[in-house]
Structure formats: C-alpha cells, structure tokens
Write a structure and sequence with these properties.
It is a single chain. By secondary structure, the protein is mainly α. The protein folds into two domains: about 5-40; about 45-95, Arc Repressor Mutant, subunit A. The protein has helices at about 5-30, 40-45, 50-60, 60-70, 85-95; strands at about 50, 75-80, 80-85. The protein has a three-stranded antiparallel beta sheet. Strand 2 and strand 3 form a beta hairpin. Helix 3 packs across helix 4 (about 60-70). The protein is elongated, with a radius of gyration of 26 Å.
Length: about 110
C-alpha cells in the first residue's frame, strides 16, 4: 500500500497543506500586532519541576530537596498535595553560596 502512487500523492498533498496552513497562521499573526505568537507565549511560562525532577537536575537525593525546601532554601509551589519548583529557582539555589565563617554580621548587644 505504501508503494502506490496514490499514497505518495496523498503524502505530498499533506505536506503542502501543512505549509499553506502554517503560512496563513503566520500572516494572520503578523497582521495583528497585539496577538502574541503561541511559541513566544509558551517560552514565558515557567517550567515547573517535581521533587524528583529537581533532585535529578541537581544530582542530590529527594530527601535533600525536602530539607532545602523546609529550610527555605528552595522556593516552591503547592498544587493540591503536590510540590513544584520553578526551574530557574532550582538552578539559582544550586549556585555556590558564600561560606559561613561562624561570625555574626552584627555584634551582640551587651
């Protein structure tokens, strides 16, 4: 069936139809400057990671992610009972932090 000339013609028509539809969409979007392109809009949506995905991204255990979350080192969002992290926040938390030398930043009051 895939060797028939009709099948090849149908595939070619499908490709041409997709090209024409894509061109029509781009032209319609260009005529309306207030409408944002769907791909650009999707790039603005923050990527949310689950606890396991965040742990895999940082090469740490799930327990470590939960500890960092409870200490306030990782910002998170709750959706129902699930916990999600923004990818940018996870990568920001992974940056090296200045070492704590044990001294206070302000002297104690006497």
């Amino acid at each position: 069936m895939t060797d028939s000339p009709i099948y090849a013609l149908l595939l070619e028509l499908q490709r041409e139809f997709r090209k024409e539809i894509t061109q029509a969409i781009h032209q319609a979007l260009a005529q309306h400057p207030g409408v944002q392109h769907p791909i650009a809009r999707a790039a603005e949506v923050p990527t949310l990671l689950t606890v396991r995905e965040a742990a895999a991204l940082l090469h740490v255990s799930v327990a470590t992610i939960h500890q960092w979350k409870s200490k306030g080192l990782l910002a998170y969002r709750k959706v129902s009972t699930r916990t999600y992290f923004e990818r940018a926040a996870v990568l920001e938390a992974a940056k090296p932090q200045p070492a704590f030398d044990g001294r206070r930043s302000t002297p104690r009051r006497r």
